[in-house]
Specification:
The chain is of the alpha/beta class. The chain is about 45% helix and about 10% strand. The longest helix has 16 residues. The model has no long low-confidence stretch (mean pLDDT about 95).
């Protein structure tokens, strides 16, 4: 795959942060800058080293777009969101913040995915208490 220079910088910086054990990293790119591709590359990096990955999304449309992109690139993944069949055993999970909060925090029906890397799409709108209740346990468990 050919990457744009800003994507290469973001991928390299993300891999470096993961390698040194950073716990919270923010990578920004403009609209249309290829954030999904960057997330896929970082996920592939961690999956290739035997780690689990959770990608968090807030909107149904974005969840659909991300799962289509993951499938197109050949990523075997589960989707932890309403209206999707549960495949929680897969190392890569695309998670709806709303579903995770309802099923993992409010009701304890599920446990959070044991992710070495937790990626948050649209993090600027995912900074409230519900998102923190999901992300803090990932960080406490050593995830980037």
């Amino acid at each position: 795959m050919n990457f744009w220079p800003p994507q290469i910088v973001a991928i390299d910086a993300g891999r470096d942060a993961i390698r040194v054990g950073e716990r919270r990293v923010c990578i920004t790119l403009p609209t249309g800058g290829g954030k999904t591709v960057v997330m896929q590359e970082l996920a592939a990096y961690v999956l290739g080293r035997g780690g689990n990955v959770a990608i968090y999304s807030i909107r149904k449309l974005l969840t659909e777009q991300i799962t289509k992109g993951l499938s197109k690139r050949g990523f075997d993944h589960g989707v932890r969101a309403a209206e999707y069949r549960s495949e929680r055993e897969k190392a890569l999970q695309l998670c709806s913040f709303q579903t995770e909060h309802a099923r993992c925090v409010k009701s304890s029906k599920w446990t959070l995915h044991d992710a070495r890397l937790a990626l948050v799409d649209e993090s600027h709108v995912n900074k409230g208490p519900a998102a923190e209740e999901i992300i803090k346990p990932h960080v406490a468990a050593g995830a980037t």
